[in-house]
Amino acid sequence: MGHLGDAMAEAGIDTSSITMVALTHAHGDHINGLLTPDGRRAFNNLSKIVIGEDAVEGFLAEPNLAEFRPLLAPINGGDRLADHLLAVAIPGHAPGHMGYLLSTDEDEILFCGDLIHVPAEQFARPELTWAYDDDESMARASRIKLLQDAAHAHNWLAGAHLGRPGIGRVVEEGRGYAFIPAA
Ligand SMILES: [Zn+2]
Fold first, then answer.
1. What is the 141 CA–ligand 1 centroid distance (Å)?
2. What is the per-residue pLDDT across 14-69, written as a single tens digit (0 to 9) for each?
3. How far is the CA of 22 from the centre of ligand 1 (A)?
């Protein structure tokens, strides 16, 4: 939403060091991060944009991003983007909605896109869905499964609508889950 550059600067990441961006889906509040608020390229050395095959159509429908079309590299769930980076299909929210699992020898973090929109409600009651999910029953099933997996594996979870800092761990609580944000 226009703050990606500031957030990366705060994290000490030089945007010109970024050569590949992996998109979770083609909704405007995500893909327009390829541009700065004043319409310049956010990553001036970008050479590849990874995107779920079924999300490509949505990307092509965004006229502001036409200059990026030659960089699109469609993928599917199960594809490996690098030694420690795996694409994970998370169906339901949008066509080609994709997560990315980054593994190290010590830990794992799943970038889960829009698996969760309302953290105050959907961790405790993962069955709750809403109209921004294209296929609500599929989105519900994905959320229930992934939260269960994340709680059991004690993985990190990073989501686009989790509120600051957007990264944390999931624990079982009552009949649902709770989110423990990274300190
Ligand atoms: Zn979305």
1. 17
2. 999 999 999 999 999 999 999 999 999 999 999 999 999 999 999 999 999 999 99
3. 14
Q: Where are the domains of the chain?
A: 1-75, 77-183
Distance 25 CA to ligand 1 centre (A): 7
Q: How many angstroms does the Cα of residue 94 sit away from the middle of ligand 1?
A: 7
Tell me the per-residue pLDDT of 119-133, one tens digit each, with 9 for 90 and over: 999 999 999 998 899
What is the length of the chain? 183
- Return the residue matching tokens 């030694």: 83
Question: What are 66's two structure tokens?
Answer: 């036409």
What is the 74 CA–ligand 1 centroid distance (Å)?
A: 18
Q: Which fold has domain 77-183?
A: Metallo-beta-lactamase; Chain A (3.60.15)
DSSP 15-76: GGG--EEE-S---HHHHGGGB-TTSSBS-TT--EEEEEGGGHHHHHT-GGGGGGGGGEEEE-
Alpha-carbon distance 11 to 9, whole Å?
5
Tokens of 174: 């009552």
Q: Please answer whether residues 20 and 50 qualify as being in contact, where contact means their C-beta atoms are separated by less than 8 angstroms.
A: yes
